[in-house]
């Protein structure tokens, strides 16, 4: 990782270092000069530069807690950050392994080296992984299963829905046991003073079979209440999901179960010092995305009448003030919108090449809001606020539905 004096490249997306329009799109052309710094940072972050340069380097192997050792997967990328985090749990001869990364040689050698080192330090015989828990089916978490079996052929490997849910068929040749919500796994014993136990939490959203793990017993009281978040919450940035309604419900469940002032151990990225605080941030961010979609459907802008602009995850205003030629235009309440029309309002500060992916995320939000009864989809595929929602909006605004002068 090469250190740089600036967190983002010191160029504008439509200008080279000499100030010429050397990059396509002329992204900044429609915005005043005072917005350039905000736009530059958003642009480069969304293009992956932030992830490539500014995430901290992590050791290949690190004991991050008295009973928890993190072993990086050896598969760094802009999607996996520093690589997939796998965790070796416990203190005695039998250990629990959380996830197996992507089956790289670096990860296999790292795991074996840690197990040998633990055996030498303990002087109590060979240390083995006897239980392996896969948090979900994605290939960057499950492809190291053969390497685990190579070290201990008797290891029991668990995943929610077992082999019944394996879209990539990565695990078809493996015997995978099912996990139930609330199931507990332990190693060690109270007699020896090394009992370590985790409880599984079914937390769909990122994936249908996604599981988090909560530490329920440990010789170290500071570990009890810590949570392994897998890919629902990351050490840096925000996570992707396949079902937003399930995802938000899972975040709330995780927050309710995590201990106060306890850490979170994510599937990717650095340790999170305060699990509940980070979960609050994730929940707030998702609520902001819902609010801005509702504001567009109700008011035609991400800013509700008489309220302050929403903030992006980067802490910048989500909406820029309307252009001067928008002044005096009538604002139509409750119109019908195509999803891409909404993207052009919500993401007006972003380059057009990001609008396609942004539409996918917006559709997830709209489907959740539809399930909540707040929006409706018309016969011609457009979106609009529900009648009940618009009644509340009109009552709050104190105007007729047809139009009102823009106050933005």
Automatic annotation (TrEMBL):
Residues 1-20 are annotated as: Disordered. This is Metallo-beta-lactamase domain-containing protein. Residues 1-10 have a biased composition (Pro residues). It comes from the Eukaryota. Belongs to the metallo-beta-lactamase superfamily. Glyoxalase II family. Transmembrane segments: none annotated. CDD domains: LACTB2-like_MBL-fold (cd07722). InterPro entries: LACTB2-like_MBL-fold (IPR047921), LACTB2_WH (IPR041516), Metallo-B-lactamas (IPR001279), RibonucZ/Hydroxyglut_hydro (IPR036866), Sec-metab_biosynth-thioest (IPR050662), WH-like_DNA-bd_sf (IPR036388). Keywords: Hydrolase, Metal-binding, Zinc. Residues 83-268 form the Metallo-beta-lactamase domain. Residues 11-20 have a biased composition (Polar residues). Signal peptide: none annotated. It holds the Pfam family WHD_BLACT.
């Amino acid at each position: 990782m090469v250190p740089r004096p600036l967190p983002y490249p010191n160029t504008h997306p439509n200008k080279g270092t000499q100030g010429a329009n050397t990059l396509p799109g002329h992204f900044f052309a429609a915005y005043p000069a005072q917005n350039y710094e905000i736009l530059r940072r958003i642009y480069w972050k969304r293009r992956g530069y932030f992830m490539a340069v500014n995430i901290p380097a992590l050791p290949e192997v690190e004991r991050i807690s008295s009973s928890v050792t993190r072993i990086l997967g050896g598969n760094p990328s802009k999607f996996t950050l520093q690589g997939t985090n796998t965790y070796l749990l416990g203190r005695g001869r039998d250990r629990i392994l959380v996830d197996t990364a992507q089956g790289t040689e670096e990860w296999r050698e790292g795991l074996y080296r840690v197990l040998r080192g633990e055996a030498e330090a303990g002087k109590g015989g060979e240390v083995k992984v006897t239980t392996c828990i896969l948090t979900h089916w994605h290939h960057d978490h499950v492809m190291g299963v053969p390497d685990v079996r190579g070290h201990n052929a008797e290891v029991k490997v668990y995943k929610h829905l077992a082999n019944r849910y394996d879209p990539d068929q990565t695990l078809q040749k493996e015997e995978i046991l099912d996990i139930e919500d609330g199931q507990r796994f332990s190693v060690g014993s109270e007699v020896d003073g090394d009992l370590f136990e985790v409880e599984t939490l079914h937390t769909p959203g990122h994936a249908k079979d996604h599981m988090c793990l909560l530490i329920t017993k440990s010789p170290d009281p500071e570990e009890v209440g810590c949570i392994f978040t897998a890919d629902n919450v990351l050490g840096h940035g925000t996570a992707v999901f396949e079902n937003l309604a399930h995802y938000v419900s899972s975040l709330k469940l995780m927050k309710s179960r995590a201990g106060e002032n306890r850490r979170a151990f994510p599937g990717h990225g650095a340790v999170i010092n305060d699990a509940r605080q980070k979960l609050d941030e994730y929940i707030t961010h998702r609520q902001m995305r819902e609010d801005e979609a509702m504001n567009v459907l109700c008011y035609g802008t991400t800013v509700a009448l008489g309220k302050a602009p929403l903030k992006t995850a980067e802490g910048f205003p989500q909406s820029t003030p309307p252009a001067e030629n928008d002044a005096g235009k009538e604002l139509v309440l409750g119109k019908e919108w195509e999803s891409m029309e909404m993207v052009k309002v919500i993401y007006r500060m972003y380059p057009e090449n990001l609008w396609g992916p942004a539409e996918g995320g917006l559709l997830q939000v709209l489907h959740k809001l539809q399930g909540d009864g707040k929006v409706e989809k018309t016969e011609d595929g457009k979106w609009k606020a529900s009648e009940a929602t618009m009644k509340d909006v009109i009552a709050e605004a104190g105007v007729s539905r047809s139009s009102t002068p823009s106050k933005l």
